[in-house]
Each structure stands twice: as structure tokens, then as C-alpha cells.
Amino acid sequence: MAERFDRIWHNARLATMRADRPDLGEIEDGLIAARGGRIVYAGAQSDFSADADAVERIDCAGRWITPGLVDCHTHLVYGGNRAHEFELRLKGASYEEIARAGGGIVSTVAATRKASEAELVAGALPRFDALIGEGVTTIEIKSGYGLDTETEMRQLAAARSLGGQRPVAIRTSFLGAHALPPEAGGDKDRYIDLVCKQMLPAVAKAGLADAVDAFMEGIAFSAEQTARVFQAATALGVPVKLHADQLSNLGGAALAAKFSALSADHLEHTDEAGAVAMAKAGTVAVLLPGAFYFIRETQKPPVELFRKHGVRMALATDCNPGSSPLTSLLLAMNMGATLFRMTVAECLTGVTREGARALGLLAETGTLEAGKWCDLAIWDIERPAELVYRIGFNPLQRRVWRGQ
């Protein structure tokens, strides 16, 4: 009796992104078969059973199929916007000067605290839909604009709610250690006590966070304070991530590696010792060219060091109101190539396989192979490089999530 599938996509070209294949794992005359939302077969059509049956067959007319894209670093849920700060920066104010003057993250905190969960969801949906419209099937969303237990949990609940409104996978990260709230009176240690002893346990008990993140920087928190947050997360069994070495080298990459972090993100000022530590720990380097571009950074992340030591590299939008109001993962790839000199393969695997790895989801998504979720992006292109090369152009023909 012929094997039966829910759907078969045939007459396609596949960029499987599998690590055990050269380049992008391209397969000409490819076919994907799915059942129960998962890939059962992804490979050459000639190696697939000729008498296989399916509820639906889709002729892809020679189009390219990649895994659904993964945006592994966003701050998508927040209140208000910071266009006025953009104007200040154009007049010469630095990111740090705006933050120290009460702007920056703290201004978004005020707007977010005033917003209901429904208002946060409604505000995030246009940004969310922009990403989905480019073939994104998995999105990470951080909190960090509440800086009190109630608002942090409301942000995370809003992020989870977005996943119920659209066919997309959501991963949430608790970023309570993002900035110091005004009511802390400048006492960072006391605030970190609050994060570790009240906020994080409440978030973990409610099951609202898949990871814990922190911002380790001169304008944020020290290595010792960050380590306390990570120790508390580890004790609760929650994996960690880190905003590391963005504006200065405080050893963030090495600290992230010490705690076996899923990823260290930004990394413009990371040194060779940090790269070596990340490689040994398997911590993914998440590069965020949108923030580099928007705040007019000049120090590029050490891509050559990451290549030299075998550090996996992901790319993400860092969608946020202050330093990267970017809602295009396609543009993030072009920026990764033009600004950071990443290769086409590094960019494409960075928003698929390595983006999934940075979220601890590589066993479930990020490549086209049997057993993984059938999350696909089908493109009207002649070659995969077009996805990196073009600017302001979206060639997505169809997005598939869980086989639908």
C-alpha cells in the first residue's frame, strides 16, 4: 500500500541548510513530503517513492524552498516609540547621552507600563506581521521594558498571545536586567536583588520565559551583577542569553560562555579570548547589523575571529524602538553582508539553522530534514543569493508553518 502524506511539494529546488552538506545543502529537482506538521522527506524527487499518495500536491514550478526564517533576537513588544530620540541623534547626541538624560530604554519603560496587554499586542502586531510577511516562522521576543514584576510579566504574556493570533512559533526571553528603573534610585545591586529574588521566580513559576537575558554594559549592569542573574536562572533551570560587548569590552562573551549561554548577542567589541570561550561552550554569536547601522557604530563584530575559532553565527533584526527599529530579516541579511562582510551562506544559515541553534530549537526547526517541523519559505528567485543581494524587495511566494 502506498505511503500517504498530508502534503507534497514537488518540482522545487531546496536549500536545506543542513550542516552535513556543502554550501547551503542545495538539491535540484527537490521534493518535500509532510505529515502531522512535520517533514517526513526532504530530498531529491528521484529518490522518493513514485507511488506515494498525498491529500494535496503542490507544484512549486522550480521555485526555491528554504526553512522558514528564524528571527532569534527581537524586542517586539513595547509601548510608544522613540522617533524623537532619532531626531536628537541626528543632531549629534550619542546613545549613551540620551540614556543618561532619562531617554533611551527608560522612556520606553514609561510607555510600556501604561499599556494594557491588549494594547501591547495591538501595537506589536504590525511589526510582527512585517516579519511573518518575509517568511519568518519562528520569532524570539524579549521583555525588558517593564522593569517591575507586573509589567515584565504583562510583556511576556503579550508576546505569548501573539503566537495565538498568527501561525508562528514564539520563544520568550525575560530581560528584567535590561536597565535601571527610575524608582531604583541608582542602586543597581538592590534592583538586581529584585530581579533575582522576586521577578525571575514569578516569571519562571508562570512559565512565561524560555530563556533569561541581560544587558551587560557600562550603562547597564556589571559582570558581577549579570552573573548573579545567570546563577538565579540556572538554579531555576532556565537557559541564558546575553547582550554582550556592544559598546565596550567588559568580557561579556566570556561570561556568557562560562554559563553555557545559548547565545551572546551584538559582540562588536568582543576580543579573541571571548571568541575562543564561545567556541568551546557552543555559544552562538548573534550579530545585529540593524543596531550597528542605526546608532552609527564603527567597531564591527570580529567575524574573522568567529570564523577562525568555529563560532556559529546567527543574524537577527534586534527589532526595538531605540536602536534598531527594523522589521525586515531580509534587510538584516543584506546589512550582514555589506556591513560585516558575511558571506551569502553565513547570512542564510544565520537566519535559519544558526538562528534556531541560538534559541535551542535546532532539533525542531532551522533545516529541511525529516523529523523537523514543516516550516518552509517558498521563494520566487533564481538563486538563494538574491535573498541577501536585493534591498527592499520581498520575493516570498508562500510561507508554510507546521505543514499548513
From TrEMBL:
<feature type="binding site">
    <location>
        <position position="73"/>
    </location>
    <ligand>
        <name>Fe(3+)</name>
    </ligand>
</feature>
<feature type="binding site">
    <location>
        <position position="75"/>
    </location>
    <ligand>
        <name>Zn(2+)</name>
    </ligand>
</feature>
<feature type="binding site">
    <location>
        <position position="178"/>
    </location>
    <ligand>
        <name>4-imidazolone-5-propanoate</name>
    </ligand>
</feature>
<feature type="binding site">
    <location>
        <position position="82"/>
    </location>
    <ligand>
        <name>4-imidazolone-5-propanoate</name>
    </ligand>
</feature>
<keyword id="KW-0378">Hydrolase</keyword>
<feature type="binding site">
    <location>
        <position position="75"/>
    </location>
    <ligand>
        <name>Fe(3+)</name>
    </ligand>
</feature>
<comment type="function">
    <text>Catalyzes the hydrolytic cleavage of the carbon-nitrogen bond in imidazolone-5-propanoate to yield N-formimidoyl-L-glutamate. It is the third step in the universal histidine degradation pathway.</text>
</comment>
<feature type="binding site">
    <location>
        <position position="243"/>
    </location>
    <ligand>
        <name>Zn(2+)</name>
    </ligand>
</feature>
<feature type="binding site">
    <location>
        <position position="322"/>
    </location>
    <ligand>
        <name>N-formimidoyl-L-glutamate</name>
    </ligand>
</feature>
<dbReference type="InterPro" id="IPR006680">
    <property type="entry name" value="Amidohydro-rel"/>
</dbReference>
<comment type="pathway">
    <text>Amino-acid degradation; L-histidine degradation into L-glutamate; N-formimidoyl-L-glutamate from L-histidine: step 3/3.</text>
</comment>
<keyword id="KW-0408">Iron</keyword>
<dbReference type="InterPro" id="IPR005920">
    <property type="entry name" value="HutI"/>
</dbReference>
<feature type="binding site">
    <location>
        <position position="318"/>
    </location>
    <ligand>
        <name>Fe(3+)</name>
    </ligand>
</feature>
<keyword id="KW-0369">Histidine metabolism</keyword>
<keyword id="KW-0862">Zinc</keyword>
<feature type="binding site">
    <location>
        <position position="145"/>
    </location>
    <ligand>
        <name>4-imidazolone-5-propanoate</name>
    </ligand>
</feature>
<dbReference type="GO" id="GO:0008270">
    <property type="term" value="F:zinc ion binding"/>
</dbReference>
<dbReference type="GO" id="GO:0005737">
    <property type="term" value="C:cytoplasm"/>
</dbReference>
<feature type="binding site">
    <location>
        <position position="246"/>
    </location>
    <ligand>
        <name>4-imidazolone-5-propanoate</name>
    </ligand>
</feature>
<feature type="binding site">
    <location>
        <position position="318"/>
    </location>
    <ligand>
        <name>Zn(2+)</name>
    </ligand>
</feature>
<keyword id="KW-0479">Metal-binding</keyword>
<dbReference type="GO" id="GO:0019556">
    <property type="term" value="P:L-histidine catabolic process to glutamate and formamide"/>
</dbReference>
<dbReference type="InterPro" id="IPR032466">
    <property type="entry name" value="Metal_Hydrolase"/>
</dbReference>
<protein>
    <recommendedName>
        <fullName>Imidazolonepropionase</fullName>
        <ecNumber>3.5.2.7</ecNumber>
    </recommendedName>
</protein>
<feature type="binding site">
    <location>
        <position position="320"/>
    </location>
    <ligand>
        <name>N-formimidoyl-L-glutamate</name>
    </ligand>
</feature>
<feature type="binding site">
    <location>
        <position position="145"/>
    </location>
    <ligand>
        <name>N-formimidoyl-L-glutamate</name>
    </ligand>
</feature>
<dbReference type="GO" id="GO:0050480">
    <property type="term" value="F:imidazolonepropionase activity"/>
</dbReference>
<feature type="binding site">
    <location>
        <position position="243"/>
    </location>
    <ligand>
        <name>Fe(3+)</name>
    </ligand>
</feature>
<feature type="domain" description="Amidohydrolase-related">
    <location>
        <begin position="64"/>
        <end position="381"/>
    </location>
</feature>
<dbReference type="Pfam" id="PF01979">
    <property type="entry name" value="Amidohydro_1"/>
</dbReference>
<feature type="binding site">
    <location>
        <position position="323"/>
    </location>
    <ligand>
        <name>4-imidazolone-5-propanoate</name>
    </ligand>
</feature>
<feature type="binding site">
    <location>
        <position position="73"/>
    </location>
    <ligand>
        <name>Zn(2+)</name>
    </ligand>
</feature>
<dbReference type="GO" id="GO:0019557">
    <property type="term" value="P:L-histidine catabolic process to glutamate and formate"/>
</dbReference>
<comment type="similarity">
    <text>Belongs to the metallo-dependent hydrolases superfamily. HutI family.</text>
</comment>
<dbReference type="GO" id="GO:0005506">
    <property type="term" value="F:iron ion binding"/>
</dbReference>
<dbReference type="InterPro" id="IPR011059">
    <property type="entry name" value="Metal-dep_hydrolase_composite"/>
</dbReference>
<keyword id="KW-0963">Cytoplasm</keyword>
